[in-house]
Write a structure and sequence with these properties.
Number of helices: 12
Strand order of the largest sheet: 2-3-4-1-5
Strand content: 5-15%
Largest sheet: 5 strands, parallel
Radius of gyration: 20 Å
Structural class: alpha/beta
Shape: globular
Number of domains: 2
Number of strands: 5
Helix content: 40-55%
């Protein structure tokens, strides 16, 4: 079994926070790639879906340098149109890779936030599921399966990711490292927005415009990232986080989401101030 018990890197640390059920599934497939299935990874933001998927496919192909030939990673939030799917996923699937035959391992397509695709774009993915997973394996990631088309759901092995284990005093890691665990920051606007989010918590400024950055899912990832980095989890923040990350949060309405998000930021600000060391006596 692949050794994933001693967290030596940021990815190892995230993987070791997974429950034994999830770890055992991926460890089995790493050691027996011929038994692999198409997989649907679902669970709340911050549960480790993206990190696990990327760690998994790189473990499968760790001895092969040209990973761009055998691994395609897309975020559906940025690839919502049918044309984007056709231009990226189908050419990758149809391209011949000698490594698949040589190593007897499949190519992988990771599609993060797949539920954000339009219905038409989701249905356009059905032909990809006709490929044997030993040839091309699809890993679809979503927060809730309720927004994934039922014609697709039945073709996947479902793997549930539970909410992250929250422990006050957990191992702290560098902010940039945690940022990469939750989402690779490749766009300047994303990096700047995340920096503004952290500044809001540290400097206790008014969270104007920060609760609707891209989408609620991304906001919750940033909350989890900040809470782990600055050791901010408490019972109140946990309850607010779980409330917003509930699969039915899309039915809350814009006003309720905005209010709950702003309240969560204020709670983070308050806890950060409480964690500051007392000033030294003069």
């Amino acid at each position: 079994m692949s050794a994933i018990t001693h967290p030596q890197t940021k990815c190892d640390f995230q993987i070791n926070r997974l429950c034994p059920r999830v770890k055992s599934i991926f460890s089995h497939y790493i050691n027996h790639p011929s038994s692999i299935h198409h997989m649907l990874l679902y669970g709340p933001p911050g549960a480790g879906k993206t990190t696990t998927a990327e760690w998994f496919v790189h473990e499968i192909w760790k001895e092969y340098d040209l990973k761009q030939e055998v691994i395609l990673i897309l975020n559906a939030a940025d690839e919502r149109s049918l044309e984007a799917i056709r231009q990226k996923m189908y050419p990758f699937a149809e391209a011949q890779s000698p490594a698949v035959i040589q190593y007897k391992k499949p190519k992988f397509i990771i599609l993060d936030e797949c539920e954000t695709l339009t219905e038409t774009a989701q249905l356009a993915l059905r032909p990809l599921l006709e490929y044997s997973p030993q040839e091309i394996c699809l890993l679809f990631l979503c927060n809730s399966v309720t927004r994934v088309q039922h014609q697709l759901i039945s073709r996947f092995l479902h793997i549930r990711f539970d909410p992250p284990t929250i422990k006050v005093g957990s191992t702290s890691m560098a902010l940039a490292e945690w940022r990469n665990d939750f989402r690779k920051q490749t766009e300047k606007i994303e990096t700047e927005s995340f920096t503004s989010f952290i500044d809001t918590i540290i400097n206790k400024s008014t969270p104007t415009g920060l609760t609707h950055i891209y989408d609620l899912s991304r906001f919750l990832r940033w909350v989890a990232l900040a809470a782990y980095e600055f050791n901010l989890w408490n019972d109140d923040i946990i309850q607010q986080y779980l409330y917003l990350s509930h699969p039915d949060n899309n039915n809350l309405g814009t006003y309720k989401i905005k209010t709950a998000s702003e309240n969560l930021i204020k709670s983070l600000q308050c806890q950060f101030q409480q964690n500051l060391p007392a000033p030294s006596p003069t």
